[in-house]
Give the backbone structure.
Amino acid sequence: MKKYLVILGIFFLPITVLAEEKTTEITTTIPSNYTLTIPANQEIMKNAETTALSELKVSGDLAPDQQVRISATIDEMKNKDSKQAPTLPFRLTNEKGEDWKSDTWGAQDAVTQKTAKLNLKIEKEAWAKAKPGRYEGKIIFTSAIE
Protein backbone atom coordinates (compact mmCIF):
# COMPACT_ATOMS: atom_id res chain seq x y z
CA MET A 1 0.00 0.00 0.00
CA LYS A 2 2.89 2.34 0.67
CA LYS A 3 4.10 1.95 -2.86
CA TYR A 4 0.84 3.22 -4.20
CA LEU A 5 0.80 6.28 -1.95
CA VAL A 6 4.28 7.25 -3.08
CA ILE A 7 3.30 6.95 -6.72
CA LEU A 8 0.11 8.95 -6.14
CA GLY A 9 2.06 11.64 -4.32
CA ILE A 10 4.26 12.17 -7.33
CA PHE A 11 1.27 12.82 -9.56
CA PHE A 12 -0.22 15.43 -7.23
CA LEU A 13 2.82 17.63 -6.76
CA PRO A 14 2.07 21.33 -7.29
CA ILE A 15 3.10 22.54 -10.75
CA THR A 16 3.89 26.19 -11.35
CA VAL A 17 2.24 27.54 -14.51
CA LEU A 18 3.44 30.89 -15.89
CA ALA A 19 0.62 33.01 -17.33
CA GLU A 20 1.42 35.27 -20.26
CA GLU A 21 -0.84 38.09 -21.44
CA LYS A 22 -0.83 39.29 -25.04
CA THR A 23 -2.94 42.02 -26.57
CA THR A 24 -4.54 42.40 -29.97
CA GLU A 25 -5.23 46.02 -30.86
CA ILE A 26 -8.35 46.74 -32.86
CA THR A 27 -8.46 49.92 -34.98
CA THR A 28 -10.52 51.44 -37.73
CA THR A 29 -10.35 54.65 -39.71
CA ILE A 30 -13.48 56.40 -40.86
CA PRO A 31 -12.49 58.83 -43.59
CA SER A 32 -14.18 62.17 -44.12
CA ASN A 33 -16.54 62.22 -47.07
CA TYR A 34 -18.59 64.87 -48.79
CA THR A 35 -20.73 65.53 -51.81
CA LEU A 36 -20.26 68.70 -53.83
CA THR A 37 -23.37 69.94 -55.64
CA ILE A 38 -22.60 72.45 -58.38
CA PRO A 39 -24.95 74.64 -60.40
CA ALA A 40 -26.64 72.94 -63.34
CA ASN A 41 -25.92 73.86 -66.96
CA GLN A 42 -27.60 77.12 -67.77
CA GLU A 43 -28.71 79.05 -70.83
CA ILE A 44 -27.87 82.74 -70.44
CA MET A 45 -30.33 85.23 -71.90
CA LYS A 46 -28.92 87.76 -74.37
CA ASN A 47 -27.89 91.04 -72.69
CA ALA A 48 -28.49 89.64 -69.19
CA GLU A 49 -25.94 91.33 -66.98
CA THR A 50 -26.67 89.15 -63.93
CA THR A 51 -27.96 85.59 -64.04
CA ALA A 52 -28.65 83.65 -60.83
CA LEU A 53 -27.15 80.16 -60.86
CA SER A 54 -28.48 77.26 -58.83
CA GLU A 55 -26.86 76.83 -55.42
CA LEU A 56 -23.40 75.49 -54.73
CA LYS A 57 -23.33 73.29 -51.63
CA VAL A 58 -21.33 70.73 -49.71
CA SER A 59 -22.93 68.00 -47.63
CA GLY A 60 -21.30 65.14 -45.79
CA ASP A 61 -19.32 64.07 -42.76
CA LEU A 62 -16.00 65.81 -42.08
CA ALA A 63 -13.60 65.45 -39.18
CA PRO A 64 -13.95 68.43 -36.79
CA ASP A 65 -10.55 69.84 -37.78
CA GLN A 66 -11.12 69.54 -41.53
CA GLN A 67 -12.76 71.75 -44.10
CA VAL A 68 -13.56 71.54 -47.80
CA ARG A 69 -12.27 74.34 -50.01
CA ILE A 70 -14.21 74.95 -53.23
CA SER A 71 -12.69 77.13 -55.91
CA ALA A 72 -13.79 78.04 -59.40
CA THR A 73 -11.93 78.67 -62.63
CA ILE A 74 -13.64 80.35 -65.53
CA ASP A 75 -13.30 79.44 -69.19
CA GLU A 76 -14.70 82.50 -71.03
CA MET A 77 -17.55 82.00 -73.45
CA LYS A 78 -16.30 81.51 -77.01
CA ASN A 79 -18.32 81.90 -80.19
CA LYS A 80 -18.60 78.38 -81.64
CA ASP A 81 -19.77 79.71 -85.03
CA SER A 82 -16.98 82.24 -85.57
CA LYS A 83 -13.41 81.87 -84.38
CA GLN A 84 -12.79 85.56 -85.18
CA ALA A 85 -15.52 86.77 -82.80
CA PRO A 86 -14.34 88.12 -79.44
CA THR A 87 -14.89 86.04 -76.32
CA LEU A 88 -17.71 86.91 -73.97
CA PRO A 89 -16.03 87.30 -70.57
CA PHE A 90 -17.95 86.71 -67.35
CA ARG A 91 -17.29 86.43 -63.65
CA LEU A 92 -18.94 84.91 -60.63
CA THR A 93 -20.36 86.99 -57.82
CA ASN A 94 -21.96 86.10 -54.50
CA GLU A 95 -25.41 87.26 -53.45
CA LYS A 96 -23.91 90.58 -52.24
CA GLY A 97 -22.49 91.24 -55.74
CA GLU A 98 -18.87 90.66 -54.64
CA ASP A 99 -16.51 88.66 -56.84
CA TRP A 100 -16.50 84.97 -55.86
CA LYS A 101 -13.48 82.75 -56.46
CA SER A 102 -13.56 80.31 -53.53
CA ASP A 103 -15.10 79.46 -50.18
CA THR A 104 -14.67 76.90 -47.40
CA TRP A 105 -17.11 74.57 -45.69
CA GLY A 106 -16.29 73.30 -42.19
CA ALA A 107 -17.58 70.13 -40.53
CA GLN A 108 -20.74 71.83 -39.22
CA ASP A 109 -21.34 73.53 -42.60
CA ALA A 110 -21.29 70.13 -44.31
CA VAL A 111 -23.83 68.74 -41.84
CA THR A 112 -26.17 71.73 -42.22
CA GLN A 113 -25.53 71.79 -45.99
CA LYS A 114 -24.42 75.41 -46.19
CA THR A 115 -25.05 76.87 -49.65
CA ALA A 116 -23.44 79.59 -51.73
CA LYS A 117 -25.77 81.53 -53.99
CA LEU A 118 -23.76 82.49 -57.05
CA ASN A 119 -24.49 84.79 -59.95
CA LEU A 120 -22.93 84.94 -63.39
CA LYS A 121 -22.09 88.53 -64.30
CA ILE A 122 -21.50 89.72 -67.90
CA GLU A 123 -20.73 93.41 -68.30
CA LYS A 124 -22.81 95.56 -70.67
CA GLU A 125 -19.64 96.43 -72.63
CA ALA A 126 -18.92 92.73 -73.26
CA TRP A 127 -22.43 92.19 -74.63
CA ALA A 128 -21.96 95.18 -76.95
CA LYS A 129 -18.83 93.57 -78.48
CA ALA A 130 -20.41 90.12 -78.91
CA LYS A 131 -21.05 88.91 -82.46
CA PRO A 132 -23.92 86.67 -83.60
CA GLY A 133 -23.43 82.95 -82.93
CA ARG A 134 -23.60 80.33 -80.18
CA TYR A 135 -21.29 81.08 -77.25
CA GLU A 136 -20.13 78.38 -74.84
CA GLY A 137 -18.04 78.68 -71.70
CA LYS A 138 -17.36 76.75 -68.52
CA ILE A 139 -17.09 77.15 -64.79
CA ILE A 140 -14.74 74.50 -63.41
CA PHE A 141 -15.28 73.83 -59.70
CA THR A 142 -12.46 72.18 -57.77
CA SER A 143 -12.80 70.82 -54.24
CA ALA A 144 -10.32 69.49 -51.70
CA ILE A 145 -10.28 68.56 -48.03
CA GLU A 146 -7.83 70.66 -46.04
The radius of gyration is 34 Å.
